[in-house]
Amino acid sequence: MSDETTNGAVAPAPQEAAGPAFSVEKIYVKDASFESPNAPAIFNEQTQPELQLNLNQRVQRLNEGAFEVCLRVTLTCAVGEKTAYVAEVEQAGVFGLVGMEPQVIDVMLGTQCPNILFPYVRQTVSDLIQAGGFPPFLLQPINFDALYAETLRQRQAQAGAATDVASAEPAGNA
């Protein structure tokens, strides 16, 4: 028996895992919409469609060790001057990040979490478009590491600009 004690001593409680931990708690579609304002006439158009993709990410702290990460994709397809369709999907996930330095958490939220969510948002967008009567569309892979690196460069540039403004002496009357 594993709960046995010797000489009346109580067995020590199992220790909690020490060190950093990352977990995927929940993945879900937070919002999804599809519209085809010019259907059914748009199905007869023979012009090459133009696609515009808009991607953004939002992070919200839920509690000490849990974060909601939302990956929003908006895909607009135009044929000539007419909109063929607009598909919008906000894929979300709740992620547990404990025992990590703030900088590591920032990297995880900016790279790993969106990488986990991306296949789900890609599938949902594709399903919506196909259900709308259009040929399937597969989003190409996105390099979230490169996007995160660009975000860091922008943050540093903004911090540098703010420092320059703060260190500038205000013009005074002599």
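[next item in queue]
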Amino acid sequence: MRIISGSLKGRKIIAPKKLPIRPTTDMAKESLFNILNNSFYFDSISVLDLFAGSGNISYEFASRGTSQITCVDQDFGCIKFIKQTADSFNLPIQTIKSDVFKFLEKATMKTDIIFADPPYNFPEEEFAKIAELVFENNFLLEEGVLIIEHSKHTDLSEVKHFSYAKNYGSSVFSFFENEVS
């Protein structure tokens, strides 16, 4: 994987093969950041990266100037790799080793962007539970967005707070937002 833009543009990051990850492809990641670039100033937002895996998305945010990034993953190897990589590039990434659902049930924080990249083979109810917990527990700031990456075989359009989806090859990004009153 490589960092597409920002201060670390072009840097390659090689994760250990033993990590249980499926990094977001460069094409999908570039498309996602093109969308986000139209709505956010990266140097003035906070990001929560759920099912962070290799930290691929968090490194991209950090390279673009985001200084408040929290990664959550239950795999110790993933958390260790993210921490080591963040330290080696001097990136402002905090890591939390936790089951994402337990974290969402207990944590109290507000953030601009939540990116969740759970295993593609999750049942649709588990994907929906992520959105449910994020909105029930008010994790997003008023103009914030939850983005869930999933396979094209999963349809989240009926989940509450769904806004739209963008398809990139075999990956889909579903966007969820606070309802406008």
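[queue empty]
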